[in-house]
Amino acid sequence: MPYKKEKLLIYNFGEKGSYVKPRPSIVQDFVVLKAQCLSTGSLFEDPLFPADNSSLFYTYKSHPSYKWKRPGEICNNPKFFVSRASRFDVQQGISADCWLAVTIANLPSNPHLFELIVPDGQSFEVNYAGIFHFRFWRFGRWVDVVIDDRLPTDQDELVYLHSSDKNEFWSALVEKAFAKIHGSYELLNTGDEMESLEDFTGGICEIFDLRLEVPNNLYRIMLKAYERSSLMACANLDFDAVVESRTPQGLITGHAYSVTKVQYVEVDTPTLSGWFPLVRIRNPWGTGEWNGAWSDNWPEWNHISEKTKKELEMQPQIDGEFWISYTDFLQYFHRLCICNLHPDLLNQDIYKDDDSKLWKLYCFEGEWVRGNTAGGCRRFWETHWRNPQYRIKLVANLKNDSGNKCTVIIALMQKYTRAQKKIGAVKFWIGFDVYYLEDLENLSKPLNQTFFFKNNSAVVPSNYIYSREVSHRCQLSPGEYCIVPSTYYPNEEGEFLLRVFTKEEINMEEYDEELEISTPAHSRVQGPKKVEKRELKFTTKTYAKFADRKEIDWVELKEILDEELGHNHVQGGTGIIWKALSLFSTKYDFEPPGGFSKEICRSFIAMMDIDRSCKLGLEEFTRLFIVIREWKAVFESYDKAKTGYLEPFSLNEALKSAGFKLNNRVRNALCHIYASSDGRIRFDDFFMCAVRLDTVMNNFKNNDPNNSNEAKFSLEELVANIVYF
Fold this sequence. Notes:
Blueprint: E1 10-12, H1 30-40, H2 53-56, E2 67-69, H3 71-74, H4 98-106, H5 111-117, E3 131-138, E4 141-148, E5 151-154, E6 157-158, H6 170-182, H7 193-199, E7 204-209, H8 218-227, E8 231-236, E9 255-268, E10 273-282, H9 306-311, E11 321-325, H10 326-332, E12 335-340, E13 360-368, H11 381-384, E14 390-394, E15 406-414, E16 429-436, H12 449-454, E17 465-466, E18 469-476, E19 479-487, E20 494-502, E21 507-510, H13 521-524, H14 533-546, H15 554-565, H16 575-580, H17 598-608, H18 618-638, E22 645-646, H19 651-657, H20 664-674, E23 681-682, H21 683-702, H22 715-724
Parallel strand pairs: 1-4
Antiparallel strand pairs: 2-5, 3-4, 5-6, 7-12, 8-9, 8-12, 9-10, 10-11, 13-20, 14-19, 14-21, 15-18, 15-20, 16-17, 16-19, 22-23
Helix pairs in contact: 4-7, 14-15, 14-18, 15-17, 17-21, 18-19, 18-21
């Protein structure tokens, strides 16, 4: 469903909706926990991220032993900030997390964002209680992460991220909070700067492979990104060199750098004259710099005016930061990542006179479910159309775009977390396609298999990549389009977040069937008069065996089914249906395992019990058998191989034939509950789907007298209805 809020909503760590699952009943509220510590005069010790190796490592190999110390035990005068936060406060430690360090170093450049990530009022001087908190973006939600200030040290030196000032600790504490939300420090080893940029901003990242054809306007894109306070990172990915080895130009291979500024500069020297596009870059190590043109020791600086040097904030010192020409940047760096910020994170006062610099964000949460919405890429054309579909309507805005084109950035993120590595979870190869919708009124909703067979993607199809997210910047003509996110292979199950950034307001919706209330089974069957004589004779004779009080309960209903078929000793399975209904149709070519379970018999009672007596009279009992016959005929029509199962992706059509018109969300829920591991649906589970859908829709309809699709239930009515069926 759409995820849209007037203002940012921040969840506490462990709160439902925070995408964090600590021990049951533990929700960490910073304000409450700090107040408790201050009232007792104790320093906070985090039970969810203890000061031991479980917070450092997740593998079982031998690890070094570090001592956990609070800042006051490391130095005499600990400070949260020394003067103010700066990109130079971030120095990478022993962990291979340069992908994280480049993002943390970028934060101070955007005060509005920095205050969100690092809340005000935290210090070691005022109301110190050994507790701090920071905020991170988690798949569409902001989560407040509480930590204590015990940090791993080796000989009184911080092991991981640290500041250039030994008594400054804000950057080390940010890293600890980020390690906590993922499960351990070790889980931060190696990563993609795109991942950290988004987790600290909630923005959408664009990746530019500088080894391929570079857009002619890339420098302009970088300039506009810098103007919008977008965060940027780059990397030298020389795969032929040893990782983290130094090149002749002074760059580090396989290493991430921050892009801290993009600027044209005008110079007039004996060898240079004119305007030059420059990029300022910082190595999170705090050392190791470019040694070519525009580097700190470049001789031409002696001929450049002090005014220009001041404008460029030129600092000829060993701090890991340097200027490089755009031409050399393209030659020696292989990847650029631009993180476009969520509009709520921008200082909108700056753009109040020109909102063309502001992005608009549209966000949908969805899932690929085996046997229903996990259709795979276009290569699997028989199932590709089953994937979730999202319609967008684009309107040109000449103020924002050149010509008659609309700029759209589409990003698909799978909800894979680093913490899941501990349980063996894997990422999928993911991507999306965008289709132009012509003559929308005559197209099916959702788009059917025929549409995808006849139409190609309106943009170059996104390459399916093994990454948490794939994104693409599109220039599209005004009109209506359908975005289809998918994994590469069918039946790969997972949740995803689809986000669209545009420069103008658009309409976006999930392009899916509408959920409709079906006619209840007991209403479709008018009574015994429409039953064939042999059927009525069978049901009357069977019913009379057990109905000594003119009505039967679920126990007697089960006895009827088992007695008639000689399966009293068997619980569960599908056998009863096949034999019971063999009176009316063909037999299956296998011996089924048993009868109805007590759960489905209770559901039979609830579905047909009009007067809520928890029992069935003869007429209700007869109607039940007629409904069973109808649903069995439906199942047989979709189980042509007579396997006793519906094949994956058949549930929707089968339920539709049984009278139920459902949407993806409801079908996904049914597949989660009733489908087997391979996405197939057994007969008795199909029957349970139909029974429960019929019952719940009937209950809803009875409480919606005006057919407004809005029913009102008291708490008592709601609980009674749920418990009853």
